Amino acid sequence: MADFPLVSERMNRRAFLGAAAAGAAGLSPTLQAIAQTAPERKQPAGPPDFGSPAQMYAARVDAGHSLPAIPVEKLNKRFIRQVVIDPTFEKPGTIVVDTSTHFLYFVLPDRKAIRYGVSLGKAGFDWTGTATVQFKKAWPVWTPPPEMIKRRPELAKYANGMPPGPQSPLGARALYLFKNGQDTMYRLHGSPEWDSIGKNASSGCVRFINQDIIDLFARVSGPTTVHVRHSMYLGANAGGAGSAKPTTEAIDSGVPEGAEAL
User: In the prediction, which pLDDT does 10 show?
Assistant: First the structure.
């Protein structure tokens, strides 16, 4: 008989705990309404995780085109795509090219940026300034302009356009830069010449490893400001008000048909 009060006490404790749990679940109608209408708290998205260099630059098939793997063991590690502390102090979504280091930055929130290694224009063709990405195109047709064909007659066979593909000078993606509504003929584009990254090897444009321009292309979703600077750390930005017209050599005959307007 002495056990009965203990059993009863245990039962009462269980009943109390059960009632407490039911009370927590059974909010009043007012509190239920508040809980149902309160916005879900989302954790801020962190910087992208690219995986290993071998994963980033692995062979892939994109829109039916086969891109070969990049021999990452031969790449300078400085030019491998990576997330870094943002040195540009620009707002997220801005693109900044530092010509002194052959880096291009895509600015992220929280003082972070994606840094890509790039190849830049030959001496006499490069420029600094500010422009806006107005169009973009996956697997663009490349059409050399008449002045380029005049200098290089072997390109005459592409006067009506070179079909897109891994060997195209514009590579897998192209971003078309405009200034004051006019095509600057300056491009951010892919290239099959992965070993040109970090060098001055192209005529007035910024070229990427194809796997990298595919990554950047996917992040550009509207008109995007692009600053091209001599040096990030000297505050050099020739793209301010009243900057001169870019002196880049035209590398194609304009925005191709079917390009996406931003």
Answer: 41
pLDDT of residue 28: 53
- Beta strands 112-117 and 120-121 are unpaired
Task: Give the Å distances, CA to CA, from 260 to 25, 33, 231, 251.
Answer: 51, 44, 31, 19
Residue entry with tokens 């059993």 = 7
d(CA 87, CA 105): 9
The pTM assigned to this predicted structure is 0.77
User: Does the pLDDT at position 19 exceed 60?
Assistant: no
* Token pair recorded at residue 211: 């796997």
**Both tokens assigned to 201:** 């090897």
- Distance of alpha carbon 221 from the chain centroid: 10
Amino acid letter, 86: D
